């Protein structure tokens, strides 16, 4: 079975490294990006790009089609009193549309600054 990963937060430092690793490992790699031009500049050309955000359930439904894995690393919400909290509401939206067989992946950068080899994948 072909592996197809959807990466949320792909233009950020951590998820960008994941995109590159997945492309190198020959996963079909799709990135949900808020800014298509930025995505084209910073991501490998093999990456499929979908422009939008986690508030758009119709777009998320389209983005989730045929994926086998999800890597979720959205930008942090600065205003914790905002009507839409990306880490909470965005995750809820995407979980509602994901096929039940999708493998969820999440990497935490907590403590990453302590290790110079943090981004080296085994």
Structure description:
The protein has 122 residues and is an alpha/beta fold. The protein has a single domain, classed as NAD(P)-binding Rossmann-like Domain (Rossmann fold), CATH 3.40.50.720. 31% of the residues lie in helices and 18% in strands. It contains four helices and five strands; from the N terminus they run βαβαβαβαβ. Strands 3-2-1-4-5 form a five-stranded parallel sheet, with helices on one face. The protein is globular and about 40 Å long.
Number of helices: 4
Reading the helices and strands in chain order gives: EHEHEHEHE
- End-to-end distance: 22 Å
Low-confidence stretches: 118-122
Shape: globular
What is the spatial order of strands in the main beta sheet?
3-2-1-4-5
Please report the total strand number as a whole number. Answer: 5
CATH class category name: Alpha Beta
CATH architecture: 3-Layer(aba) Sandwich
- CATH superfamily membership: NAD(P)-binding Rossmann-like Domain
Helix content: 25-40%
Mean pLDDT: 86
Largest sheet: 5 strands, parallel
Domains, number: 1
Rg is: 14 Å
Q: Beta-sheet strand percentage?
A: 15-25%
CATH topology: Rossmann fold
Oligomer: single chain
Structural class: alpha/beta
Give a nutshell description of this structure.
Helix content is 31%, strand content 18%. The protein has 122 residues and is of the alpha/beta class.
Keywords:
122 residues, Rossmann fold, alpha/beta
List the helices and strands and how they pair.
Elements lengths: L3 E5 L4 H12 L3 E6 L2 H7 L5 E4 L5 H7 L5 E4 L13 H12 L5 E3 L17
Parallel strand pairs: 1-2, 1-4, 2-3, 4-5
């Amino acid at each position: 079975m072909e592996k197809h990963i959807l990466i949320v937060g792909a233009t950020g430092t951590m998820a960008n490294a994941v995109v590159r690793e997945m492309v190198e490992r020959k996963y079909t790699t799709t990135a949900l990006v808020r800014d298509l031009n930025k995505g084209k500049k910073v991501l490998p050309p093999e990456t499929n790009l979908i422009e939008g955000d986690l508030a758009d359930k119709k777009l998320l439904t389209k983005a989730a089609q045929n994926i086998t894995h999800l890597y979720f690393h959205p930008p942090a919400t600065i205003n914790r009193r905002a009507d839409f909290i990306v880490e909470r509401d965005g995750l809820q939206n995407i979980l509602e549309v994901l096929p039940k067989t999708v493998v969820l992946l999440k990497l935490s950068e907590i403590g990453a600054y302590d290790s110079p080899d943090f981004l080296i994948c085994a």
